[in-house]
Amino acid sequence: MPALSEVLSALDALWPAERAEAWDAVGTVCGDPEAPVRRVLFAVDPVQEIVDEAVQLGADLLVTHHPLYLRGTTTVAAATFKGKVVHTLIKNDIALHVAHTNADTADPGVSDALAGALDLRVLRPLVADASDPAGRRGLGRVCELAHPMPLGDFARYAAERLPATAQGIRVAGDPERTVRTVAVSGGSGDSLFDEVRAAGVDAFLTADLRHHPASEATQKSPLGLLDAAHWATEWPWCEQAAAQLDEISDRHGWDLRTHVSRTVTDPWTAHAASSHPSPTTTLQSSASRAASD
Ligand SMILES: [Zn+2]
Fold first, then answer.
1. Among positive and negative, which fits the CA dihedral 110, 111, 115, 117?
2. 291 has pLDDT over 50
């Protein structure tokens, strides 16, 4: 069985910490470098449910995409929810390792996994990392659909291919407009509209889109927007990362057991579709009622 330090060096080679954004908090949160590792669990969020799952599974290492402490802390008291996570991990000899923005921009990275889940052909990064001579690393991916389809159909297709969440996928733009090319970015893609427009794609699939940026983006060009659940856009990375570690384990004869959590940790737990007429319909009908009165 490999020691934690050996597994961590392999993970660092996949997602070097120095490629993370300056504001990010990646790397090992807890764990004894000498401890043996047999079982590894991959998940998006280091929340208590996931840590409990790691305990149930008998995992020695939990690898998550999101950091536990992004801004540092002065306490890991179990009275705080993050402190409880730390206590549970240490009491059960489970290490926690985070690969966040260093996994986003990797080759393959989070958006490659997202494109893979949707069977898209990746053409190039949306924001290329200038330090990569191969031109494959960077944020987001510009992709091509194998079979162009209307935006509305593409949204339904993406909702079927991504893991199910309460949110599903919201769409902005003409549902009938054909989508041939799409930019994808796992996680919050709100800041990438300029790059998406410059890429000249038909649609942009990401998460956490807000009213004003989305409204402006669709006013400036006929770009279709697909707003999926943040967790769902990053979850495919867990499968990709587990497969990468499996391959390393085979190469070294480590015999690791990798697992991917299927627990939905998206914070949104329910979605109520409007059952009454839309505001536009209501306004029109009251206007026509007023006209006929
Ligand atoms: Zn994220």
1. positive
2. no
| Of the residues 209, 228, 247, the one at which a domain ends | 228
| Residues 64 and 22 reside in one and the same domain | yes
- Which pLDDT band, with edges at 50, 70 and 90, does 59 fall under? very high
Per-residue model confidence (pLDDT) at position 275: 82
- Are 243 and 139 contained in the same domain? no
Range of the domain at 240: 4-101+233-260
- CA of residue 256 to ligand 1 center, whole Å: 26
Distance 185 CA to ligand 1 centre (A): 10
Q: Provide φ and ψ at 213, rounded to 5°.
A: -60, -40
| Predicted TM-score of the model (pTM) | 0.93
Å from CA of 6 to ligand 1 middle: 26
For the chain, the distance separating the N- and C-terminal CA atoms, rounded to the nearest angstrom, is 82
Cβ neighbours of residue 216 closer than 8 Å, sequence gap 6 or more:
193
pLDDT over threshold 80, residue 293: no
Provide the number of structural domains found in the chain.
Answer: 2
| pLDDT for the residue numbered 16 | 97
